[in-house]
């Protein structure tokens, strides 16, 4: 039975440091158990701050970065190196300074002229027929309650089969995206929903209180779901 836990810290800086520190512990524990760790990254503002904080944590030296698989929960379908790509932002925040095995950094395809549906299918192939183990899957939470690129009322939210999907006409720019599906997200051992700031108060409150119209309310981990929040984002949790 999956457990849901809510952790609230005073502000966004403390949240970024707290999540980074928990991530180090999770990766170290996974490597102690299995030799490797699988982490799914998210995009967005708080994610960038978490990754930047990770880069300055002394305890991150305990991680064997060559035995970490990095995946993404979603991607803005833009050309390689575009500053708005989640991959570019993660690389700039920390990835480029870590001794990762490039073959284990599984970025979602960039827009190279191929259509997004083909790109999503390619990522599904990279994930494989059996999903890899995701020890932790991180998600930002949008003001509208979206997670990854699953938006309220969009058809991708209802997918019960397949691991990836293209998203068209996204309400948040850019309009074309690639996302993991809910079944892929829910396969993760732990799902961490991370949100900070007053613009997230309503969506976080509604999702934690169980409003299933919001994609965030469906993002649960196989063993644990953590809501990692600052005080402002947590203000409307009942
Ligand atoms: O566009 C996206 O936005 C969400 C939330 O971002 P935030 O800046 O409001 O924290 C993010 O989780 C998602 O990965 C990204 O593609």
From TrEMBL:
<dbReference type="InterPro" id="IPR005900">
    <property type="entry name" value="6-phosphogluconolactonase_DevB"/>
</dbReference>
<comment type="pathway">
    <text>Carbohydrate degradation; pentose phosphate pathway; D-ribulose 5-phosphate from D-glucose 6-phosphate (oxidative stage): step 2/3.</text>
</comment>
<dbReference type="GO" id="GO:0017057">
    <property type="term" value="F:6-phosphogluconolactonase activity"/>
</dbReference>
<keyword id="KW-0378">Hydrolase</keyword>
<protein>
    <recommendedName>
        <fullName>6-phosphogluconolactonase</fullName>
        <ecNumber>3.1.1.31</ecNumber>
    </recommendedName>
</protein>
<dbReference type="InterPro" id="IPR039104">
    <property type="entry name" value="6PGL"/>
</dbReference>
<dbReference type="InterPro" id="IPR037171">
    <property type="entry name" value="NagB/RpiA_transferase-like"/>
</dbReference>
<comment type="similarity">
    <text>Belongs to the glucosamine/galactosamine-6-phosphate isomerase family. 6-phosphogluconolactonase subfamily.</text>
</comment>
<dbReference type="InterPro" id="IPR006148">
    <property type="entry name" value="Glc/Gal-6P_isomerase"/>
</dbReference>
<dbReference type="Pfam" id="PF01182">
    <property type="entry name" value="Glucosamine_iso"/>
</dbReference>
<feature type="domain" description="Glucosamine/galactosamine-6-phosphate isomerase">
    <location>
        <begin position="10"/>
        <end position="227"/>
    </location>
</feature>
<comment type="function">
    <text>Hydrolysis of 6-phosphogluconolactone to 6-phosphogluconate.</text>
</comment>
């Amino acid at each position: 039975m999956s457990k849901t836990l809510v952790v609230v810290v005073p502000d966004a800086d403390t949240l970024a440091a707290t999540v980074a520190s928990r991530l180090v512990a999770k990766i170290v524990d996974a490597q102690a158990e299995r030799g490797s760790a699988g982490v799914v990254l998210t995009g967005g503002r708080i994610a960038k701050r978490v990754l930047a904080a990770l880069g300055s944590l002394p305890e991150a030296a305990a991680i064997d970065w060559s035995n970490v698989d990095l995946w993404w929960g979603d991607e803005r379908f833009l050309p390689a190196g575009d500053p708005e790509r989640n991959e570019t932002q993660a690389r700039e925040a920390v990835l480029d300074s870590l001794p990762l095995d490039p073959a284990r950094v599984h970025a979602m395809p960039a827009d190279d002229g191929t259509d997004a549906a083909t790109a999503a299918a390619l990522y599904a192939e990279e994930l494989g027929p059996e999903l890899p183990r995701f020890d932790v899957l991180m998600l930002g939470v949008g003001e509208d309650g979206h997670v990854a690129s699953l938006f309220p009322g969009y058809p991708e939210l209802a997918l019960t089969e397949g691991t990836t999907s293209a998203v068209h006409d996204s309400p948040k720019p850019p309009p074309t995206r690639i996302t993991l599906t809910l079944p892929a997200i829910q396969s993760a051992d732990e799902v961490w929903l991370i949100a900070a700031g007053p613009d997230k108060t309503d969506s976080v409150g509604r999702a934690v209180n169980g409003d299933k119209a919001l994609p965030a309310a469906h993002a649960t981990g196989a063993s644990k779901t953590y809501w990692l929040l600052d005080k402002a984002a947590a203000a409307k949790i009942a």
